[in-house]
Amino acid sequence: MIEVERIARQETIALRGSMLFEGDALTVLRRLPATSVRCVVTSPPYWGLRDYGIAEQIGLEASMHQFINRLVAIFTEVKRVLTEDGTLWLNIGDGYTSGNRGYRAPDKKNPARAMGVRPETPEGLKPKDLLGIPWRLAFALQDDGWYLRSDIVWHKPNAQPESVKDRPARAHEYLFMLTRSERYFYDWAAVREPADHGGLRNRRSVWPVNTRAFAGAHFATFPTELIRPCILASTQPGDYVLDPFFGSGTVGLVCRQEQRQYLGIELNPEYVTLAANRLQGLESQVIRIAA
């Protein structure tokens, strides 16, 4: 049985084990205790790439700058809830300008890419331009005070095919490592990788990880093996890990496997139910936060 609690007042929420919040990320974050989370691992919705069909969703802002500014505001609040030695691991994907088409046609190899609404081409960019959103966001967060410590290339050996004949098919995304402070917790030994000639070496910045579908989800999900090194490097057993865009709850699943506590925030009630059912058996609590 999933325990559901509604909170409407504006007091700070007392953390009591792993918790799942249904509500807007910024609203919930403002209710969490300061310096309570050791690590954040998250993948926000990408701009202009999917319509989740829910009010106040992130990703369909009228302009790219509005999208980036909205995420910067959310991650400013994330910084408040991070411990001084805490780390943010941020996965964000890119896209191309729409050419001012208000839709996106399905790709023969990927029908799910079709959309009935798309933002206009940002001012200063041209049709078919790569947007460059990952780096625009990373630099905006750096300007907001975050320490940008590493850019990890998530190489997807089984990347989704693309029906394109005028550029290489994309097979990577970025995972940025950012910290609140100049000095922070990082357990390098916990995430060493096999060396070419035997033994172990310091983890490199290209991570080959296959994408994996989750049977209950009809949207992109985080692979567990992309999340696991982030959690092992940046936390110790019992620490809190936050994902403000919880989706199907994969961050929570890895936390359970690695004896960490999780805090998940998700706007879409359908995904909250999906995550709660997936994580059932833990001391799961669903808390609905009014705007």
- The overall pLDDT average reads 88
Q: What is the count of helical runs? A: 6
Cα distance spanning the termini: 26 Å
Class based on secondary structure composition and strand pairing: alpha/beta
The topology string of helices and strands comes to EEHEHEHEEEEEHEHEHE
As residue ranges, the low-confidence spans are: none
Blueprint of the fold:
Blueprint: E1 3-7, E2 19-22, H1 25-29, E3 37-42, H2 64-81, E4 82-92, H3 133-143, E5 147-155, E6 172-179, E7 193-194, E8 200-201, E9 206-208, H4 224-234, E10 240-243, H5 250-257, E11 261-266, H6 269-278, E12 285-289
Parallel strand pairs: 1-12, 2-11, 2-12, 3-4, 3-10, 5-9, 10-11
Antiparallel strand pairs: 4-6, 5-6, 7-8
Helix pairs in contact: 2-3, 4-5
Notes on the structure:
With 291 residues, the chain is an alpha/beta fold. The chain has one domain (3-289): Vaccinia Virus protein VP39 (Rossmann fold). 22% of the residues lie in helices and 22% in strands. The protein has helices spanning 25-29, 64-81, 133-143, 224-234, 250-257, 269-278; strands at residues 3-7, 19-22, 37-42, 82-92, 147-155, 172-179, 193-194, 200-201, 206-208, 240-243, 261-266, 285-289. The chain has a ten-stranded mixed β-sheet with strand order 1-12-2-11-10-3-4-6-5-9. A two-stranded antiparallel sheet has the order 7-8. Helix 2 (64-81) links the parallel strand 3 and strand 4. Helix 2 packs across helix 3 and helix 4 (224-234) crosses helix 5. The protein is globular and about 50 Å long. 33% of the residues are buried. The mean pLDDT is 88.
